[in-house]
Amino acid sequence: MATLTIRQLDDEVYERLKARARANRRSLEAEARLLIEERTLDLPALVEDLAEFHARMVARHGHLPDSTDLLRDMRRDG
Fold this sequence. Notes:
With 78 residues, the chain is an all-alpha fold. It has four helices and no strands. It has one domain (11-77). The termini are far apart.
């Protein structure tokens, strides 16, 4: 696996990354790795994977009903 060194990272960016890592209960390195992985995903492949997942769920469970009316009723009565 490769190693990456980031020089001249703004202190505020570093502190935000540390805070994010702490909030997600990850190490600073794990948080940075996850962000880099997420930002470099092949978006067309991701969309294709999601479309395939959706098709499998519809095949297994059918289309789910629209919950708009249910949510409106809950808000009105709640």
